[in-house]
Amino acid sequence: MKKLFFLIFTLYFFSSNAQIGGKGVYDFLNLTNSARIAALGGTNISIYDDDLNFALENPALLNADMNKRLVLNYVNYFAGVNYGYAGYADNFKKFGTVSVGIQYINYGNFIAADETGVITGNFRASDYALNIIWSKQLFKNVTAGVNFKPIYSHLESYSSFGIAADIGITYYKKETDFATSLVFKNIGTQIKPYYQGHYEPVSFDIQAGISKKLAHAPFRVNLTAHHLYKWNLRYDVPEDVTQISFAQETDTVKGEILTNILDNAMRHLIVGVELLPLKSFYASIGYNFQRFQEMKLTDKSGFTGFSWGFGIKLKKMGFSFGRATYHLAGASNHFSVYFDISKMGKKTKVEVN
Fold first, then answer.
1. How many whole angstroms separate alpha carbon 163 and alpha carbon 147?
2. Residue 261 CB burial class (10 angstroms; 0-12, 13-18, ≥19)
3. Beta bridge mates, 148
4. b/e per residue, 35-66, with b = 16+ CB within 10 A?
């Protein structure tokens, strides 16, 4: 445990200047790959079962039930962009559980032109990250894990190398199907920047989550908190900011302050609910408060911030679909499949009376 905490704070030093989305490099690491997690609102670090995709969100969720599992994810994003993840896990009794995967994003083709507007050809852009995940049970009900991520980014003639790590710890009680987790995500730095001498921070985050399956109903409730290192997630357009003078009523000032506090608090939260009527089927719905506030239109919000999906689990494989609404203009579609390699090639026994 001492070594684990030393590693957390040592790596945290390299990300102390990290910012929220749009102000750091390698932000593709924060994209949601799994269809199931996309359906739950985009982030979930606390569901402890045999779904290998959760290990990418929280390395402490990697466990022996994921042994010999292969997962493949594909996301049809916006404007011709697509991304995905492929991972495989193997369990070693004394050493722990290990998973290796590759995460990528393809930004598509772009037209190249010089400063006068003359077209000179075209180029592509893409990012990649290797995920080497390890987890081990520290003591009863408590598991810790680390995800080591070498990163390569290629944007036209510019390229960058970086290194990052996720560190997670999870408490899981099987008898009550309750889990709670804490994760430090994307702790790292650029090794080679895009432009010589110009180093940028990695998109760091601290997340906490709780999951609980109801004792007498087929539902699992999930609550995830993100960007815990930064309170203010609001962005106010300067010309829209209302200047309140001391001459105005005190109740008005208190009302605005309370509204801003509640708005900020809710932007940190993601709520997800799973319906689990059968072991072989699930349906999910989620709501992302920050996504709703940042992407809604003033006069019409529609289903912005909402997500939904379903999944089918078989003995040898399974399939999941998730859809997340970012804006009235469109939504992202997520597709996931998994294969249980240990059961491949085995014949199913059929009893005949």
1. 11
2. exposed
3. 132, 165
4. bbbbbbbbbbbbbbbbbbbbbbbbbbbbbeeb
245-270 residue pLDDT tens: 545 556 666 677 888 889 999 999 99
Q: Residues 335, 239: one domain?
A: no
**Radius of gyration of the chain from its Cα atoms, rounded to whole angstroms:** 22
Residue 32 domain flag = yes
- Pick from 5-9, 24-28, 77-81, 167-171: least confident: 5-9
CATH assignment of the domain containing 327: 2.40.160.40
Pair 268, 43: CB distance under 8 Å:
no
**Domain end residue (candidates: 245, 266, 287):** 266
The reported pTM is 0.86
- Residue 273's alpha-carbon distances to 131, 222, 265, 314, 323, in angstroms, are 28, 6, 20, 22, 15
- Tokens 């430090």 belong to 184
Domain span at residue 66 reads 2-112+119-233+268-342
Residues 37 and 123 in one domain: yes
